[in-house]
TrEMBL record:
It comes from Lysobacter enzymogenes. GO terms for molecular function: iron-sulfur cluster binding; oxidoreductase activity. This is Oxidoreductase. InterPro entries: 2Fe-2S_ferredoxin-like_sf, 2Fe-2S_ferredoxin-type, Beta-grasp_dom_sf, Cbr1-like_FAD-bd_dom, FAD-bd_FR_type, FNR_nucleotide-bd, MRET, OxRdtase_FAD/NAD-bd. PANTHER family: NADH OXIDOREDUCTASE HCR, OXIDOREDUCTASE-RELATED. The lineage of its organism: Bacteria, Pseudomonadati, Pseudomonadota, Gammaproteobacteria, Lysobacterales.
């Protein structure tokens, strides 16, 4: 693991907590502590919304003040955000859109997604003063600790957020290496951080930004039109072989970027926030036994175990729903599963799997 993404060491328990823990449960402590301060907690990472601004026509940036239990992150990583909506805790994964600040505050930029329960809530209804739950930071698409040469960032839609955090981190160091950001959106009004990116490009000779529109014609000198392809990369990144490429966006965009840059660039790293298209879908059903609860279900082979079990009424821990955060990981006692993104078959007994990206390839026994 890159040293930059090692989890922070657990904080030693205070003497006071050791003394009172036999007499007060964390739940009781949290109940009474929250009456004095909304983010006081025995051990839960929480954050209060302390700022809000519009990032684009359909995205908002929230500034969060975490409590002492949150262990931090580096630019490029994600974290789980949880909010109570109509009395139910809803949790999803969001990228930091800026590196953590000296005062400990963090930013996330949330794009409203049609049908997205939490994204719609955070974009439209969440207000300053509200308290959100935080998960530990995760994600391997981060910059190396040592400068390693020129870089090319490829972003589409919400995929700009982790890359923007890395752009800002590099700007704090006066852009020590050449960096180009190519940022796709359907329309101009859907672009985030435009004025800031233009100001950074004007201030740093080592930084270039190009805005790529797929449903509008370019107007400004730093705009172009068209979807990602070899000709477009040749226009804006002629020195591709000398660059480390980082790509983030929908699954199809990331796969296109991989096909164009992986092997043609100095290195390639990516993350997708939607699954890549699946080549094949399996028909039929499999018997899935939940060993701890003693329940048995017939579940479809072509659907993720998480989605299929939720359809049966189970409430299971989940976060990114992309196989990144491990919130939905559980043990498998026997049987085979197929990874929904890669098609790879996993038949090892007594192993772990992530429910959100695993489909049954036969009868299974899960440690649930």
């Amino acid at each position: 693991m890159n040293a930059a993404v090692r989890p922070a060491a657990a904080r030693p328990r205070s003497r006071l907590r050791r003394l009172v823990s036999p007499f007060v449960s964390p739940q009781v402590f949290d109940f009474w502590a929250s009456r004095f301060h909304p983010t006081w907690s025995w051990e839960r990472p929480l954050a209060r919304i302390v700022g809000r601004s519009e990032a684009s026509a359909d995205a908002a940036t929230l500034l969060l003040a975490p409590n002492r239990h949150w262990r931090g992150a580096v630019a490029g990583q994600h974290l789980l955000i949880g909010a109570r909506i109509d009395g139910v805790l809803v949790t999803r994964s969001y990228s930091l859109s800026a590196a953590p600040r000296a005062d400990g505050r963090i930013e996330i930029t949330v794009k409203a997604i049609e049908g997205g329960k939490l994204s719609g809530y955070l974009h439209q209804r969440a207000r300053i003063g509200e308290v959100l739950e935080l998960g530990a930071a995760f994600g391997e698409m981060v910059l190396p600790q040592r400068d390693d040469g020129a870089r090319l960032f490829l972003a589409a839609g919400s995929g700009v957020t982790p890359l923007m955090a890395m752009v800002r981190a590099q700007a704090e160091r006066a852009m020590p290496q050449p960096l180009t950001l190519l940022y796709w959106a359907r329309r101009r009004e859907e672009l985030c951080f435009v004025e800031e990116l233009r100001a950074l490009a004007a201030a740093h000779a080592n930084f270039q930004v190009r805005f790529l529109l797929t449903r509008q014609e370019p107007q400004a000198a730093d705009e172009d039109a068209g979807r990602i392809d070899a000709d477009l990369l040749a226009r804006h990144a002629r020195d591709l072989r000398e660059r480390a490429v980082f790509a983030c966006g929908p699954g199809g965009f990331v796969e296109s970027a991989r096909a164009l840059a992986d092997g043609a660039a100095r290195s390639f790293a990516s993350e997708a926030f939607t699954p890549p298209p699946r080549e094949t879908r399996e028909d039929g059903h499999a018997q899935v036994v939940l060993a701890r609860s003693g329940r048995t279900f017939e579940l479809p082979r072509g659907e993720s175990l998480l989605t299929a079990l939720e359809a049966q009424g189970l409430k299971l821990p989940s976060g990114c729903r992309m196989g990144l955060c491990n919130t939905c990981a559980c043990g498998k006692s026997s049987g085979a599963t197929r990874h929904l993104h890669t098609g790879e078959l996993h038949a090892e007994p007594a192993s772990a799997l992530r429910l959100c990206v695993s489909a049954p390839a036969g009868d299974l026994v899960l440690d649930l």
